[in-house]
Specification:
This protein is an all-beta fold and 155 residues long. It is built from one helix and eleven strands.
């Protein structure tokens, strides 16, 4: 199929349709680190309102270095879905009585409900942990916290 048929695999500014009327291809090397961050980890945006015009989701990657833990945080009103790409990250939250630790590995999924304080840890001394994250808001909402506390009971 030629580009004259309306198929544009790599649209340039000169041929670009408005953001909400075309597909967007974000290559692996084009992820953007200019997003909300928590200490101890790096978030990279792939899909966001500012990057591709999404109105309801945010998607990207998170990298946690060996023997590192993120700061405690939550993601406001966002639901967060996590897919473990590599490493064995641990996700820690407070269940109202104690801290709970979920140990994961490649291929695992984790769901984080809105406003639930948590942190990511990578206990591996040699390998980074990499996860793909998708959120139900168009931007990466991050509220950093001084400590974990029990999640709110109702919203």
């Amino acid at each position: 199929m030629s580009t004259d048929d309306g198929f544009h695999p790599d649209l340039t500014e000169q041929h670009a349709a408005p953001l909400p009327t075309r597909l967007h291809h974000v290559k692996a090397g084009e992820l953007d680190g200019n997003t909300a961050q928590s200490g101890g980890m790096t978030r990279l945006a792939a899909i966001s309102g500012g990057r591709v015009g999404s109105s309801a989701i945010w998607m990207g990657e998170t990298h946690v270095a060996p023997c590192t833990a993120s700061h405690n945080h939550h993601h406001g009103e966002s639901e967060t879905a996590i897919y473990v790409v590599s490493g064995h990250p641990e996700f820690v939250f407070h269940d109202g009585t104690d801290e709970v630790r979920i140990s994961t590995g490649p291929g695992d999924y984790v769901f984080v409900p809105p406003f639930v304080p948590h942190r990511e840890e990578n206990p591996d001394p040699a390998a980074p942990a990499v996860v793909v994250i998708s959120r139900s808001t168009q931007e990466a909402i991050v509220v950093n916290l001084s400590e974990l506390y029990p999640p709110p009971r109702s919203r």
